[in-house]
Amino acid sequence: xxxxxxxxxxxxxGEKPDTTEQDRFRKNAVSVRGPVWEARFRTIxxxxxxxxxxxxxxxxxxxxxxxxxxARLMLPFPRAGGVSAHAPTPAQPRTWAPPPVDPKMxxxxxxxxxxxLVANPEVKIRDLRRAxxxxxxxxxxxxxxxxxx
Length: 149
What we know:
Elements: H1 5-9, H2 35-46, H3 52-59, H4 63-72, H5 103-119, H6 125-131, H7 133-142, H8 144-148
C-alpha cells in the first residue's frame, strides 16, 4: 500500500513539499523498503522461534505494518509455527486444600461444642453452629465423622 502523496513527499497538514531548506532532511514515512530489508523480513517471518513483536522491533515497524508487509510479500499468514506471547496454556486442575489444622486446636473446638451441648442439651444444631461458628465449622470441615455423630 503506497502512502498518500503528502506522506511520500514529506509534507504535513497540506503544506507543499520542501518549502524550506530543512524539509529536504525530514522523513515522515518510508513507502518502500529495499531488497536487503525484505530478505531480513522474510528470514525473521519464516523463523518459528521469533515472535511478531520481535520482528516488529527488529525492523523498526509496528506489528500491524509487519502483517501488511507479509501480505504484500505474499508470505504465509498466520505464520506457520509462530510463537505467540499470549499462547493459551493447558488448563491446570485446581488443587486447593484447606490448611492443616492443629490437632490441639481441633480438640479445643470439640470441647467447646461439648460444653455448649452439656449446658443446653435441647439446643438445635443450627443454633449451636450460630453460637459457636468457628468451632463448629472447624470440626465439621476437619472431622466430619465426629460432627455427624
